[in-house]
Design goal:
Length: 150
Amino acid sequence: MKAFSFRLERVLEWRQAQLDVEQSALGRLAAEFARWEAVLASLGNARAKAEGLVQSGPVTGTDLGALASYQEHIERQRRITLDRRRDCAARLEKQRARLLQARREHRLLEKLRQVRRAEWETAVDREFEALAAETYLAQWEPPRRRIAKP
């Protein structure tokens, strides 16, 4: 009996490579999303720090004007960052959908391969059983009849 071979093995390998690419892309997008989250956190910290500096001592009108300008700048940056994070979140969801589809396609071929393997193993078992039966029958000798002597 010949060894098991899955006719779609190359397609399965290609699907695995495609799955790896999609997982990698998802990882990159997740890292990008985390960076946007970190930027938002740092903007919040910067704003709080600036407000804390103003509250710690005597403040002039110039200081308050500078603080207001800085707060406007931080708010613009926050809005820009929120837009970019929202865009990244949308791309992340699309990538998750692509990854899910790639997993389904890969899993489908894996299951098909398992079914084919089971069929092949069943055929091998039948062939071995047939060979064993033939071997047994070839070695079997019918009982010899004794010829009765008169």
